[in-house]
User: Fold this.
Amino acid sequence: MHWGMAIDLKLCIGCNTCVVVCKMRNGTPPGIFWNRVLEEEVGTYPAARRVFWPVRCMHCEDPACVEACPTGASYQREDKIVLVEAEKCVGCKACILACPYDVRSLWKDEGGYFRQGLTPFEEQAYAKHVGGAVQKCEFCASRLDEGLKPSCVEACLTGALIFGDLDDPESEVSKAINEPRIHLRLREELGTRPSIYYLT
Amino acid sequence: MEVREFVLEQRQQQEWRELVIVALFLTGTGSGLFLLSLFPGFVPGMALGVALVLAGALFLFLDLSRRLAAWRLIARPQCSWVSRGVIGITSFAVFGFFHTVSLALQPNGWSSLGAPWVQGPGWMAVLGILAGLAAFFVAIYPGFLLGNMRSITFWNSAYIPALFLTSSLIGGFGVLYLLPFNWQGLPWLPFLKSVGAGVVIFELILLLGLIWLSHPGSTRDSVNLLTHGSLRYHFLIGLIGLGLIVPLVLLGLLSLGMGVAYLMVIEGILHLSGVFFLRYVIVRAAVHAPPC
Assistant:
């Protein structure tokens, strides 16, 4: 089993639904986004256009963050999902620096979105996070364990996010990356072997 | 709260800042001072070296956001340079402390004219060698720690460990020059000066190599930060000018026997400023390339 994702850049319209639903389901604190849709301007007028790059933890096969972590807080499951055991994290930030994809954040536990204190939703959501520890996308590991798909995949309006088992040639994601289209993985030259493919 | 735009662009690292830079300055200077003091058996220098490294370790500790879990830092020396560094600093503190104390308690007292630990009992020589190896590791390991960060290409250079090592030795010279000690009668003072000048010249060569041999991409962007960007004053004036070239000139004047006492104090201060600025610019010039 090797969970992975293919992102069809031609289908992504930059609506940020995946960003919002991730924030809602995981209750991430202010300023912290486990996934982002980065915008890039390409070409020149009159042929200029924007390209959207949904970016989240790449759940690399050879994760630089796990190698850098001095405590073992960052670890990799057998299905290649990279997770952070927050109680073990000391907040040294080595993993944030080591990650080539800039997708890890340190939560300093500085309150919620509103000045009046935490809302009931925030109180419940932030209880899952450990102050001073690093956090990042978990590929919705708990949902996968229940047989569900990650929240962002489920919410994507255009079907740009394709998720599944990369070891299964019959899975939707394996078929997508075996299509006769150009696909790439980000910063492959660093040898991290990401589990997320981009279809251009 | 850090507000970040969702735009594809490179980002200057913000994770390791002043506390880490001060920690690297103190541990580097302390280990360099210990190494330089170890061979002539200069106990005050060794004691101060251990104290500086411990002070640096304190700053590293303060940079952690979950300090009560700090004991976990030694859990993964098989792959993490942070773990290796913590173990190295701890080993140095233990070996260095006991070696310094054992020298200080010698019946004839410590001597700055030789290396009493090589004439003492065998266990003391072993302790001295272990302390020296640990000090060498503390001086050089930040270069490997940074160099192992695959995401920041500016740090992936063989020059970085060499720069940290030479700079630590320069820091050691800086503190030695500042110590209120009657240097004039020491037989190894001329040797100290010539070695000091050689190390400064070597660091200048390494820095030129780092700048000129940088590859395109984010490494070039880091170098541009140093030569034309927001770090240009720290790099060109603080490090190259005040930290390396002016001390070289002063060393020349010192070798001519001019104003030894106050020139050595100025020399020491400038050396230490150079050590600080080297760490400042290397840490702050790190740039995360855009992921796409």
Notes: The longest helix of chain A spans residues 17-26.
